[in-house]
């Protein structure tokens, strides 16, 4: 005997575990064909009904013994549930409003900064050094000379004034 296999398409035996009389090949254990066999399987509806029945019963299992170990596990489970609930509430009700307020503050500071720069005298002519704005080839957008984040109010580049 060569071992156990869950599905075999070359055998007429029912779906399930059985012993093979030959080594398994790649066709028998194909992961692409297994989902098809599970859909065709006559046991699928019974399994689904059984699972639904278990989900509607009480969480306390009749065979579970009430001892210190199980009480500690239940306490850890309860603590994990309350802690995760706390962090979920903190994430929704504290972090999101803080991000919104921080964004509004940054926006207001940016506007104040530009208003301050508008009242200043114009800047002197900037020197274009040869190591600035090096272009090996043109960019595929715009006029080909400016980067995608180019801001005409901040960035400075004149090809004819390079020293």
Automatic annotation (TrEMBL):
Transmembrane segments: none
Topology in the lipid bilayer: Single-pass membrane protein
Pfam families for the chain: COX6A
Annotated signal peptide: none
Principal cellular location given in the protein's record: mitochondrion
Keywords recorded for this protein, A-Z: Membrane, Mitochondrion, Mitochondrion inner membrane, Transit peptide, Transmembrane, Transmembrane helix
Transmembrane helix listed as a keyword: yes
Subcellular location per the Swiss-Prot or TrEMBL entry: Mitochondrion inner membrane
GO BP annotation list: mitochondrial electron transport, cytochrome c to oxygen
UniProt GO cellular component terms: mitochondrial inner membrane
Pathway(s): Energy metabolism; oxidative phosphorylation
Domain of life of the source: Eukaryota
Similarity comment text for this entry: Belongs to the cytochrome c oxidase subunit 6A family.
Record-given protein name: Cytochrome c oxidase subunit 13, mitochondrial
